[in-house]
Each structure stands twice: as C-alpha cells, then as structure tokens.
Amino acid sequence: METFTGKVWCLGDDIDTDIILPTEYLVFKTIDEMKPYAFSPLRPELAGRIQPGDIIVAGNNFGCGSSREQAPEVVKALGVKCVIAKSFARIFFRNAINNGLLLIENSELPDAVSEGDEISVNVNEAIDYKGKKYPIVSLPDNLLEIIDAGGLVKAMRRRNGLEN
Amino acid sequence: MGMTIAEKIIALAAGKPETHAGDIETVTLDRLMSNDGTTHLTIDMYNKLKDPHIADIDKLVWIVDHNVPADSVKTAASQKKMRDFAKEHGIKFYEGEGVCHQIMMEKHVRPGELIFGADSHTCAYGALGAFGTGVGCTDYLYAMVTGTSWVMVPETLRFNLHGKLRDGVYARDLILTIIGRIGANGANYKAMEFGGDGLHSIDMAGRISICNLCVEAGAKTGLMELDEIAFDYLKEHGDRQPKAVFAPDADAVYEKVYDIDLAEIEPIVAKPHFVDNVVPADEAKGVKIDEAFLGSCNNGRIEDLRVGAAIVKGKHVHGDVRFMVVPASRDVYKQAMDEGLIDTFIEAGAIVMNPNCSVCWGACQGVIGEGEVLISTGTRNFKGRAGHRDSYVYLASAATVAASAIAGEIVTAQD
Amino acid sequence: MGQTIIEKIFSHSAGRSVKPGDIVTVKANHVMLDDIMMPFIVSKFREMGFTKVFDPECPVIICDHLVPASQVDDTRAYHISCDFAKEQGITNLHRSDGICHQLMTEAGYVKPGQVVFGTDSHTTTYGCVGAFSTGIGYTEMASILGTGELWVRVPATIRININGKLPDNVMSKDVILKIIGDLTAAGATYKSLEFAGDTIDNMSVASRMTISNMGIEAGAKCALMAPDAKTAEYCGIELDEYQQSLFGDADAEYEQVLNYRAEDFVPSVAVPSNVDHVLPISELGDIAVDEVFLGSCTNGRLEDLHAAAEVMKGKHKADFVKFIVTPASRKIYLEALRDGTLDILSDAGAIITHPGCGLCCGRTGGIMTDGEVVVATNNRNFLGRMGTSKVKIYLASPKSAAASALAGKIVSA
Amino acid sequence: MGKIFRFYKDVDTDQIIASQYLLFPSVEEMKEHTFESLDPEFAAKAEPGDYVVADENFGCGSSREQAPAVLKALGVKAVIAKSFARIFYRNAINIGLPVIVCRELYDAVETGDEMELDLKEGIITTGGREYSCTKLPAQMQKILDQGGLIASLNK
C-alpha cells in the first residue's frame, strides 16, 4: 500500500461547502480558475499557501452543505494529498471518492496534531504522527472499486469500452 | 431679446432678468438627485473635504436603483456607504422603489426648477418643464456643498411637433428618429425644446421618454412646453405646485428649428452599437434574439406595460427568449398588478423583476452573454452595454420589443 | 420484521427486502439537474463516453440559480442547459419558472415512493411526498444519465414523532430548526429522517416541504414523511397500494426515536454561522437587522407569503431595512398576485423579484457586506453565503422574518 | 514623450468603463477594466504619460465620472479628440484630466506613435509636426489651473 508524508493544515468542525468554495465561483469554467478561492470565507490566504502533497486535517462533518462537486475537485486541484477528518458529510464523501480524492476518517488525530506538523499516511493501514500510530478503517468494497478504477469517470469510460 | 425655456430657467436660477446662449451663469440648484452609480465616490470625496457640509439637505434626493437587489459584495459595500450616509444626515432616500428618474417625476420635480442629477438621463425632467441635466460626482459634490454651480447657457434646438402619431407608432419611435436625424452629438451642449400642437397628442409617458433620450443626441437637457396633460400629472402625483411655468418667447433665438409631422414617423429600431444607428423597424426584421427587455426610465411606465401586455396576452414567450419585464417604479408595478398586466406577463412566461434599472444598465439583472442579442426599450445600445463585450443590443418601442419576444426574432407589432 | 419508509422504498426499487447497511443499485425515476451544475454534468457525460441519455423522460433540467443572469458568464450555463435538452430530446426543461425543488413536486414530476436524485443538496425536499430523494455530485449525475441507475447504501432511520398543536407564531421552520439544533449538523449523517405524528399529519404539504428540505442540514440522506390524502391531492393522484404502504411500521427498527410535543416549540433562529446553532428568539436580545429575505426552496411558498402578509398587512417595513421577497415559483408568484398577497407585501415596502434561488444561492438578490445582519427564511447561514464573511445570517420562519422587517430588529410575530 | 492610444468616433462611457465595475468601492479597483470592451489589454499597456486620441464625440453617454477618473488613475496625461461629449468634458476638467480639442491630430497618427503635449501653449508635437489645439473656455481653464473643482472647496 502507498505511503506518503505531508505537511498538515488544520481546520475545525463543520467546514461547509460554502467555505470550501463559495457559490459565486461555481460558474467559473474550470476548476483551475476556482482554485484561488478555496476556503476563502474562512482563510483567504490558505489556497495560496497549500503546496502539492499537503494534508488537510479537520474536525467533524467536513464538507457539509451543498452537493457542489467543485468542492472536492478544488481541494484535489490544490494538490491536497488527502483530507483527514473526524467525520465527513455524506455527499462530499461520495463526490470526493468519485474524483479520486482520498478521505480518511480518524477521531483522535485531529485533536492531537498542530498546523505545520508533518504526518505519514500508510493508506488503509495507519497514520503515523510523532511515532504514534492512528489506525485507518478501510473503505467498503464498492468504493474501493471506484477508487481502483481511478474515479467514476474512468469507471464509466471503461464500461463504455473507451478504456481498459 | 426673447428667451427660450432653457434661458428662462437658468435666468431664474441665476437671479437675473435675462440670460442668453453662451453666457456662463452661477446658479442656485433647486434639487440634487444622486443614485448608487456614483454616490459612493461622492461620499469619499466629501469625507476628504477640509470643511464638509451640505448647503441644503432638503434639496438632496438619493436613490438606490442601479443594482437592486445587490449582486455582489462590492455593490453592497458601495450601497451601504450611501445608505449609512443618508441615514446619518437625514437625506431623502429611496431604495428598491424604482428607477431614479421615474421616482423624481412621480414625487419631486416641479416645473421651472433647475436640477442636477448624477445621471445622464436627468434630462427627462423637461417633460415637466424643469431643466434637468446630468453631472459627474465632482460637480454634484460642489453643488451639494455650496448649493450652487456654474452652467453655460446652451443654444436651443426647437422641435415643433405637428399632427398625431399613427397607431402602433410611439413617442420612442419619434425621439429615435430625431436622434438618427441629428446624430449622437447633434445636440451636444445644446437644449432640445419641444412644442407645437402635436405635443398635446402625446401622453406624459411619451413626453418623459422623449426628454429622457435627448442626452443620446448629446443634449444638455430636453424641455417641453406645459399644457393640461402636464398639470394633471402634477395634480395626480402629490399635487405639486410649479416653481415657474415657462413658455418660450415669440422672438426667442434658436440655433435651428425643426418642424416634424408626427404622422410621418414610423416604427424605428436603433441597431448596435449606436443610438443614432436607426433604421425603419422593417429593416431589422428577422434578427434572432436571446433576450427582450421591457422597462427602464425610458419605457418602463404603465402606458408601456399596457402596450406590451396587450401584445403578449394569451400568447407565450418564444422558447429561446428570456423576456424581462421591469416596471419603472413601485407605483407602476402596483398599477400594473391592479390592471392585470403583471398577471398577463407572468402567464406568458416573462421574467418580471422588481422596479430598478435592470437590463438597461447592464449589470445585476438579465445580463447578456457572449454573442447574445437583446432587443430593448432601454436607453442605450452601446457595445457591451447589456453585458458581454461581444453582444448586441437593438433599441425599439415597447410594442416591437413585446412582439419580438413572442416571435423569437425582431418583428413589429403589425406582423 | 417491520420496515421504515426508506427500507420499503429501497426494497421496492431493488426487488428484494433490504436492511440498513445493504448496498443496492436503484433505478432513478427522475433526476433533477440545475443550471449551475449543467456545464459540469454535460462535460463529464461526454468524458465518460456517453452519447445518449438512457431515457429523455427521466431528467428534469431547471434553470433557477442563474436566471436572470447577474454576471456576464451566467448565460453560458443557460445555453448549455437548453442545448443539451434539445440535443437529447429532453422536454422537461424549465427556463425561468422557479426553484428546482419547488418545481419537482409542484409541476408533478415526483410522486410518492419514487427514487430521485438531484445535483443539489436540498433534493431531500421531495421526502415531503414520501419519495426518496437526495443530492449527488455532477459526476454521479453524468453516470446516471448514461446508465439510469446508481448505487446507494440503505441508511438507518431516525424516527421523529411530533404530536400536538403548534403555537400560532410557530411555523414548521421553527420545528425543523429546533430539531437540527438537537440533532446537530452531522447528527443524521448517512441516516434517513422519518417524520410522523399528528402535528405532521395536520401540516400542509408546503409546511412539510420545509422540514424535508432542511433534513440535509443535519446531514441526512433523506427526510421522509408518509404520503396521505393531502399528499395525494397535492400530487394530483390516488395513492396506489405501494404508496399507501409507505409508513414506518410499528415494529420497524429505528436507530433512534425522538419525541416532541408541538406545544413546546417556540419561534427560533439559527444564529451565525451554523444551522445547528439554534436559539429561541426570546433569548437573542436586541439585534438590529439590515436586510430581510423571504424566499427560497425552504420558505418561498404561498403559505409563507401569506404568513408574512398577515403579519405585515397595513404596516411598513422599518426605514433603511431592505426587505426582499423572492417567491419559489412562477405559479406561486401568480397565486400570490391574484389573491392580493403581493399587493400587501409591496405596500409594506417589499422588493419583489422574479422566482428563483435569489439571495439563498449567494450570486445576487441582495448580497451584503461587512457588518450587515440579515434575517432569512432559507436553509443555510454559512459563512460568506450571502456576501462577505462578516455578514451575519440568522435563519428564521416567514412570520419571524416579517415581524423583524417591521421592527428593524430580530423579533417573533 | 508619451505613447498614443487611438480610438474611433463616439467612444461612449460604457466602453471607457463598463457598468458592472462602477459600484466597485474605489477607482483604483475599477481602473484595470478601462476600455475593456475595445482593448482588454489597455490597462496593462498604458503607462503614465500616455495619451488617448479619438475622433468625434469622445465620452458620449452616461454621466459616470468614473470614465475620466479611471483614465486619470492610469496616468493618462490627456485625451485629445476632435470633439467631446458634454458631461465627459466637464467631468474631466473637474477632476483635472486635460481634455484637448484638436481637429487635425486624429487623422495624422496611429496607435503606438509618440507625441508630446505643451498644455500651456496648446501645442502637440508628433512625427516632426506641430498641431495647435483649441483653448479651453476661461471658466474651465480656471478650474484646471486651481487643480480641479474640489480644490476650490478646500481653499
């Protein structure tokens, strides 16, 4: 399984989709154009500071609110390697998986970690932070299938004979 | 030496017995209208003055009408600045009540007044025999602080109207015809004065429409002689008493006099991107449209809505067209509700918005996109005026606009 | 063993008896596509390699977020919507008729017991007529357009019983705000909410709609109510055997059961900036308001406009307060026009706009700036939703909103 | 010397600065949208000391003072046209943006040419030739001399 290390950005509970990407930017033509506005209501500077490979750690109910799939797409486009939260809102969770953005649920790490710290993630096994291991619960099979295919678009392309 | 209406109003405001074209006069303003298009900048300048004060608070009328309800945080911030200032200083303030010029006509303008408005279409007030002219926010601020300003007395172009417009031809067709004839700067720095027996056949809505559009020929103001129709309007709208009622002297000096036979006017369309780019409506026929707009300080009055509703009644807006109907004021909206006109528009599939500048102003509501075509009763068809820089605006009468909304392409009401 | 409503719907759809935790593939009876997501849906649809929508009768395309356009690029989504409809032979297209969630039931698309997906989180609304409906992203929507189906996990159910008579100044909005406050914003994540009790029975479908609409604010997958005679009348149908069976069985297994007495509800607000931060208005103290918004798929219906008009009749909003009314649909606008409601609201100083999402979606319709306070009847008060992050949004019922517009501060009716 | 940006006849105020930017809180925020519909690159290309040259009726349309204000904010030294629309002309003088009537210049120059303006003498030099401009009316010259209309309020 894949292992990676990244720098942590800490966010709180109930990070809603209007925070992840406000409505006024949803109509932009491309996700790249939306990128600079990610998290702007809460932390306008954040989108500019996140580096590819960074990890977002948040509290409960990350991604609550609207069904806008621009939210996980924009997080992914910023290069965020994965989002670790105590819990995720349902639609955001589905949308993220469908786009191949890795989400990890863990109830203890978010309270332990501080912004700027580095953590290591061993996918489907555990998170390593300052020598302590935080276990990762593996995803249901049907979701793993979508992830294995590389997202829902790829899965459908495969179904339609466009990809192997 | 005789005086024109413009000369008489300026002389009165300057406290002189006489003044003539070319003179520069210091005048006391009777009323100062400003809207959300520029007031935030006026306030910024006001706050930087060494000794900020307002000469006569009762003369100020501030109207939020351009982006209502607000479409962005920047708009909201600018409007809040205006609202807070009005509240703090006790300035007469309207928000969401309609287009500024319509509110001024319904509630404030009195014949004989000299009015500065921080909006070019302030020239509309001439329909009630008042000299209204558009100024920028610096001129506005100067007048707000001192109560005075300077004006150069304009030359006057006289338009004698004769006869009567044919059915299906409107005041808007008349003024577009005139603008086409004299050009977009044909009246630059000048006053346009309207009179003659034909004027009596034109209702107040038509008169406001005519004076309102004079700036599109570059005019400083449009002015009309007053008659019973105008006095009735004043009586019905708050029983306002004139400051002075002026008719031009028989020996007034005009730069040019035009005689116009109203019966010869035909439906007109102004094609992109200039108001003076006019053709008979028949020549614009067949152009596919994406949006139609019935409204604005030029053509959003009850008379215009009646014309539009009569055409769309029982029909449905074309599937490819967004038909925006925007009454010019709350009073117009209420009257249109009472008369069943709003019902007709909604049933027909139109989009009826709250009274405000809307599509005519090109931000906030009914903005058109790249390559789109709009037919509009608004005031201007400049490039990019209604939205994207690559879009196209045709100006026409309420009748032509309504008929086109049904057809999906430019047609006249006769088709 | 007995079943909850959602278990019955998914069993019916899957053709076998299902239980919470099961993953089943269900066919969509209808899907709702809104303008703001259409450019993305169409692009994903093509990227996936689809050329034909599986059934052109299934999708309903609704232009509501961006009509009338407030920005120069807005009409792009409109044209993509109309062009895709034309290309695919989709006739269920609404260009300017109101908010998607209002139209889906009002225009007769959704019926009790159906399975419906929409690219908007408030798709939970159709639970008010006993349909399963939930919000999804545009990628999944594109896949349904191609295949007609989607996998779902059968959710556990939280049962909420409400019995008794609500106080006069309390509306169904106050009920759902209180419940969200109790459940918290994530309290029903992945769950089905099932509402029952005589208070619900006595509510109009419009009032029920407000409750189902806001189920998502507790994280719920769906928010269901058993269809009854009122539902049948609203939908213009007679309930068939399946639809009549859509109630929670007495011996169904609920993850949690909450019981409320209607008499205990009070006029409430969700205070900034969380929907689950709910307080009785009586505990707020003096909070001056700059704007009041009456509208949205939560509370822009005829009875909401009636409620406001009843409070405001013969009165006028406070000076310098913006009072914006955006009816939820063209039909509602027309009815409110014809019965004099708009007349009353206009006399009270309302700025009445064309039906659509308006301010609730934060694109136009009364955007605010730093320091402004709004009382709004919609469903979300998230940071930055209606302007800058320093705008304070209080969610309230139409009655409370109207009373606040008159008083210039937050009060109940 | 400054560069010339040459525009045609009847350049209206919507083209100088479009409606959707007018309610921005400050002229500084608006100025990057100057002439957007005619030349989206204008704001980026214009440097302080450059000139706008146009045909007849420059600045026709609305009374938006933002139109001369954005030109001034970009450092445009003067606008030279065959004629100006009334309100624009007055607004420009009021904020201290020189607006010069010169009948001959427009037909003699292209965008990118360099020119020099001697405001006091009313002389334009470009391509080795001199052009004389129409003098401002005395009332306006007075306002311009004292640094704009607002300056007179602060005396």
Write structural notes for this entry:
The complex is a heterotetramer of chains A (164), B (415), C (413) and D (155). Chain A has 164 residues and is an alpha/beta fold. Helices cover 30% and strands 20% of the residues of chain A. Chain A has 8 helices and 7 strands. In chain A, a hairpin with a 2-residue loop joins strand 6 (126-129) and strand 7 (132-135). The radius of gyration of chain A is 15 Å and the shape is globular. The mean pLDDT of chain A is 92. Chain C has 2 domains: 5-12 and 22-262, 2-Layer Sandwich (Aconitase, domain 3), CATH 3.30.499.10; 269-407, 2-Layer Sandwich (Aconitase, domain 3). Chain C has a 5-stranded parallel beta sheet with strand order 4-3-2-5-6, with helices on both faces. Chain C has a 5-stranded parallel beta sheet with strand order 16-15-14-17-18. In chain C, helix 2 (38-47) packs across helix 5, helix 6 (172-183) runs parallel beside helix 8 and helix 12 (302-312) crosses helix 14 (341-347). The mean pLDDT of chain C is 97. The relative contact order of chain D is 0.17. Chain D has a single domain, classed as Aconitase, domain 4, CATH 3.20.19. Classes of the chains: A alpha/beta (164), B alpha/beta (415), C alpha/beta (413), D alpha/beta (155). Chains in contact: A-C, B-C, B-D. At the B-D interface, helix 2, helix 3 and helix 5 of B face helix 1, helix 4, helix 5 and helix 8 of D.
